[in-house]
Every structure is written in C-alpha cells, then in structure tokens.
Amino acid sequence: MLVLTRRVNESIKIGEDITVTVLAAGPGGVRIGIDAPRDRRINRAEIIQAVVDANREAVHSSSDDVAQDVLRSVLARPNR
Question: The organism sits in which domain of life (predicted)?
C-alpha cells in the first residue's frame, strides 16, 4: 500500500486519467474529490462488502435449491 500525505487542495494522479484531490480535512474525516472518466466505477469499499455479504446471506438462507444455484453462478462470475 502506498501511503501519501496531502493537504487540502493537493492532489494525486492515478495513471493519466484519474485525479484524487483533498477537498477538506477535519476531526470527522476527510472529503476527497475524484476526477475520473465516466466509464470508471468508483465505489466505497464498505458498500461493495455489504452487497457481497447480503448476496451470500441470501444464498445461505434460501430454501429453494434452484435459486441457490442461480445466485452461486452469478456470484462466481468474474467482474467485467
């Protein structure tokens, strides 16, 4: 993991097309802005994990074997 120190209004570049800028910093957290192409997905890690956990719970709590097989096959697909 790369760890950088940035101040408000300072940025980092990721590749040629993504810029992350520190907008504000305070005791409650840091606000960042991300400038990236529209076709790039940007998600908070905790949201992705919550969806994965909910999908796994749905698979395990379902009593319908067919539904379980369908959900397992969807979850097993690589991300595009």
Answer: Bacteria
- The dihedral region occupied by 36, where left means phi > 0, alpha psi between -120 and 50, and beta the remainder, is beta
For residues 10-21, b (16+ Cβ closer than 10 Å) or e, as one string?
eeeeeeeeeebe
φ and ψ of 75, to 5 deg: -70, -25
Q: Are residues 1 and 35 in the same domain?
A: yes
Whether pLDDT at 34 is above 80: yes
Q: Is it the case that residue 1 has pLDDT exceeding 60?
A: yes
Q: How many CB atoms lie within 10 A of CB 32?
A: 14
Q: Name the pTM for this structure.
A: 0.64
- 9/34 same-domain check: yes
